[in-house]
Structure formats: structure tokens, C-alpha cells
Design brief:
Elements (H helix, E strand, L loop, with lengths): L4 H8 L3 H14 L10 H8 L3 H9 L1
Helix pairs in contact: 1-2
């Protein structure tokens, strides 16, 4: 499952634009192409958040 900027915004409280930049930074760190998705697991590893805490905020 992948994470989108609106999800990052909900989880972190950052603005939508800052969320886009964070995902771009994660892609760069993981050597992914610009059009590749970032998974929730990769996001959690990068931000040191627990997936159990992030999933309910994204899924509902």
C-alpha cells in the first residue's frame, strides 16, 4: 500500500506542499524514480513512526 501527500499531511500535521517535499526526499534517499510510489512501510522507516500508529490515520 502506498502513501500520498494528503495522508502525510494527516499523519504529520505538515502542509500539503511540505508533505510533497517529504515524499520527494524519501524517494531520493531510497533511489526511487520520481513516478514511483512510497509505501507506508518505507514512510514509517524513514520517519521512525510505528506502522500500527500510522495505519489507522490513513485507512480510517
Amino acid at each position: 500500500m502506498c502513501i500520498y501527500p494528503k495522508d502525510v499531511k494527516c499523519v504529520t500535521g505538515k502542509s500539503y506542499r511540505q508533505s510533497i517535499r517529504l515524499l520527494q526526499k524519501i524517494r531520493k534517499e531510497l533511489n526511487k524514480l520520481q513516478n514511483e510510489f512510497v509505501s507506508i512501510e518505507e514512510f514509517c522507516q524513514y520517519t521512525s513512526l510505528k506502522i500500527e500508529q500510522v495505519n489507522p490515520l490513513i485507512i480510517g
